[in-house]
Amino acid sequence: MEALLLVTANVGSLFDDLEGLQTIWLQEFYEAVAKYKPHFIAVHCQEIGGKDYETGMAQVDPFVESILSSKEMQEYNRVCVYLDQTFTAHTRFTALGSMYFLHQSVHNIYQFDFKVQEFKEVVGKVVHSTHLDTNSMIEKERFPQDFWPEFKWSRKGYIRTRWRLQDQVFDLVNVHLFHDASNLVAWRCPSVFPGNRRRALGHVLSRITNSCYEKVPFLIFGDFNVRLDTQRVVETLCSPATVRTIPTNDAGDVNKVLFQEKGKDHKVLLRLESKTFDYFDQDVFRENNGKALLEFDRELATFTDDICELDIHFPPSYPYSEVNTEGTLYANTRCPAWCDRILMSPSAIELVVKGRPVYNVMGPAVCMGDHKPVYLFFHIPA
Predict the structure, then answer these.
(1) Out of 177-186, 219-228, 328-337, least confident range
(2) CA 368, CA 255: separation in Å to the nearest integer?
(3) 290: alpha, beta or left? (left if phi > 0; alpha if psi -120 to 50)
(4) Cβ atoms of 137 and 87 closer than 8 Å
(5) Cis omega (within 30 of 0) on the bond before 144?
(6) C-beta neighbour count of 40 within 10 angstroms
(7) Residue 254 burial (CB < 10 Å; 0-12/13-18/19+)?
(8) CA-CA distance, 162 to 164, in Å (whole number)?
(9) CA–CA distance from 103 to each of 38, 75, 76, 174 (Å)?
(10) 248 φ, ψ to 5°?
(11) 66-86 pLDDT per residue, tens
(12) Which residue in 65, 158, 162, 298 has its CB near the most CB atoms, within 10 A?
């Protein structure tokens, strides 16, 4: 049986703290490789180069090279890496990076060439970081601007590859969907943000299931940015409470909302601002892996006929503190949510569940940046 390890990781934080977070991140990744001994590894990264990508992009190549040259990865003698680093191409830049590692013991794995529509043998270690838009081994697209016209600049999009392992053909899609730009807007109902994400995900699904190529099982893993139903979460966490809105100007625009306990001390349960979600007791998001909050994770319900997911038994993957010593603490910026996911087609999940799958977060006790990588390990029968 061939073992597969699929990882999705928003790595934006790693390029802001090169010595600290990168070292920890790589150590956890290597430990997972040593633990599972996969024959095929797919790592889908988002926000390569970091938030300040014009500066941080120079650190991407050394980061990738450190993986390729590490002693932990020497048994993976064939590597395909696709890095979208061309940030000056504003209409095409996605900041996505897809990395694929093939173990030396695997001899019957091939990658699909979308132009000539045939599978080709993977040879050597190759890093592609230019001309990705014309690279026939991938499909890459930045989401059209009209998907979120109010937001003038976005690095969101997807990269698709197709593989044949043994006699099984499957697509692997790296995706980064739109974020919540403001907690105050997300708290109102309805919020525009879930609709933006649904539109983008529907676009990806239509592209990878159209009639251009043979339909095959697919796995989509990346930063979906899906959030909990913020209004209902706040109602649940802060009930009963008094709500105090604080205007930011004479026009009455709300800058801050305080949810306070009823009583003489008026303890603040939650402070809500555009980029602040400061709840007084973070344990609710960690206790029993946040299971009580999964009922508010509804955004993907629209696509239940098209995509599936294994049961989630890990805490929300975002937003964690980026302080090295605070590996289990959430940042008080957003409501914690399962943003990072591994989804798949119904035909793919049939294959996965037969392969003793493990679906979990990487580095649960250490700081991996503001996102915990999420991984899926499973076997494909020989």
Answers:
(1) 177-186
(2) 31
(3) left
(4) no
(5) no
(6) 20
(7) middle
(8) 7
(9) 8, 6, 4, 21
(10) -100, -15
(11) 999 999 999 999 999 999 999
(12) 158
What pLDDT is stored for residue 64 in this prediction?
97
Give the model's pLDDT for residue 188: 82
In terms of residues, how long is the chain? 382
Question: Is the Cβ–Cβ distance between 296 and 228 less than 8 Å?
Answer: yes
Give, in order, the Cα–Cα distances in Å from 54 to each of 15, 48, 148, 159, 239. 11, 11, 23, 21, 44
Q: HEC profile for 234-275?
A: HHHHCCCCEEEEEECCCCCCEEEEEEECCCCCCCEEEEEECC
Given this model, what pLDDT does residue 18 score?
62
* Residues paired with residue 165 on neighbouring β-strands, in sequence order: 109, 168
Compute the average pLDDT of residues 141-163. Answer: 85
How far separated are the first and last CA of the chain, in Å rounded? 5
Q: Is the bond leading into 240 cis (omega within 30 degrees of zero)?
A: yes
The yes-or-no verdict on residue 62 having pLDDT over 70 is: yes
Query: How many C-beta atoms surround the C-beta of residue 305 within 10 A?
Result: 7
Name the average pLDDT for the chain.
Answer: 93
- Which residue's entry shows tokens 């695997």? 106
Dihedral sign for Cα 84, 89, 92, 94, please: positive
24-27-32 Cα angle (round to 5): 130
- Residues 6 or more apart whose Cβ sits within 8 Å of residue 285: 293, 315, 316, 330, 336
Max intra-chain CA distance, the chain? 73
| The two structure tokens encoding residue 344 | 């798949």
Tokens of 46: 């988002």
CB-CB neighbours of 251 under 10 Å: 6
Residue position matching structure tokens 């060439």: 113
